[in-house]
Design brief:
alpha/beta; Rossmann fold; Alpha-Beta Plaits; six-stranded mixed sheet; four-stranded antiparallel sheet; 11 helices; binds adenosine-5'-triphosphate; ABC transporter ATP-binding protein; nucleotide-binding; ATP-binding
Length: 308
């Protein structure tokens, strides 16, 4: 996998206070990297440093191997970003907006404009005025703007903010497409855990300016234990069987439905023990664990990390 962006021990100190503390991570070609953290954790500050909108106090950011500090022009030419709301003229059409933006850059051909408009799915509406666009369509037009110069790295700060569920789905699909089909490295930030889970390949969790965890979404969600849903005929017996394990296995029951927290390795042992004790098992189903569950598992209620 080719590395597109590298953060090397990046720190930001403002008025003697460390806002970002020694961040190090890489993002690769073709992957969506989620930057996840509660409000005030430092996501926007980090993104502003990556795109050169803010000085880096310590460390460096390399984009396609070029330092944003030492070779700003070289590094930034591979970046497309929406950090604040995209600037759009609502009284002009989507096309006029794009054209206006294209004129400010070198070498953007009409063919490239057409290509980008198609890529974000705005071909049918591109000549309508932006004021008639939904928020999702405006986001996509913003996306088109920052794709014109064929960036290798796309950075979107809270891309689904303010969108309705249909708009969120739409943007998510385009972001995935840009990574998978165009091979871009994409960094998205969010404080919405479920959102990140659906959109990203990897997630970095930031808390009080520190990176506390970077994992593949799949591993991250699977973590250690997983809740399984059992449908059985005898709740008393299942309680006895689960209590018989050492250490005892946690569960919750309601009628013939029992939710049991197990590691994958424990599943066959529990099923065997249940069958041997005469419990009828009608179904066993893993309950999908959300990032939110995992996030709460690794942080306490004050938002501090208890184990990663
Ligand atoms: N110019 C500044 N001067 C002083 N403190 C700042 C400055 N910019 C950011 N901060 C502080 O740095 C911390 C991180 O802010 P940042 O906006 O990066 O967080 P965030 O993770 O993007 O949060 P949100 O989800 O709310 O946007 C906050 O405590 C913020 O108050």
């Amino acid at each position: 996998m080719k590395t597109v962006v590298q953060l090397q021990s990046v720190s930001k100190v403002i008025k003697g206070k460390t806002i970002i503390d020694n961040l190090t991570f890489d993002v690769y070609e073709g992957e969506v990297f989620g930057f996840l953290g509660p409000n005030g954790a430092g996501k926007t500050t980090t993104i502003r440093m990556i795109v050169g909108l803010m000085n880096i106090s310590k460390g460096d950011v390399l984009i396609s191997g070029k330092s944003i500090k030492k070779d700003f022009e070289g590094a930034i030419k591979d970046v497309g970003a929406i950090v604040e709301n995209p600037e759009l003229y609502k009284f002009m059409s989507g096309y006029q907006n794009l054209k206006h933006f294209a004129r400010m850059q070198k070498g953007i051909t009409d063919d490239r404009m057409k290509e980008v408009i198609e890529l974000v799915g705005l071909t049918d509406r591109i000549h309508d005025k932006v004021k008639t666009y939904s928020l999702g369509m405006r986001q996509r037009l913003g996306l088109a703007q920052c794709l014109l110069h064929k960036p290798k790295l796309l950075i979107l700060d809270e891309p689904t903010n303010g969108l309705d569920p249909a708009g969120i789905r739409e943007i998510r699909a385009y972001i995935r497409k840009l990574a998978q089909e165009e091979g871009m490295a994409v960094i998205v930030s969010s404080h919405l855990l479920s959102e990140m889970e659906m959109m990203c390949d990897r997630i970095g969790i930031i808390q009080s300016g520190k990176l506390v965890d970077v994992q593949q979404v799949r591993d991250f969600v699977e973590g250690s234990e997983q809740v399984y849903h059992f449908e059985i005929n005898d709740v008393e017996k299942i309680k006895a069987v689960l209590n018989g394990f050492d250490p005892g296995i946690k569960f919750e029951s309601q009628g013939s439905q029992v939710q049991v927290a197990l590691t994958k390795e424990q599943v066959p042992d529990v099923i065997r023990a249940l069958v041997e004790s005469g419990v009828q098992i009608y179904s066993v189903m893993p309950v999908a664990k959300t990032l939110e569950d995992r996030f709460l598992e690794i942080t306490n209620d004050k938002g501090e990390v208890i184990h990663a």
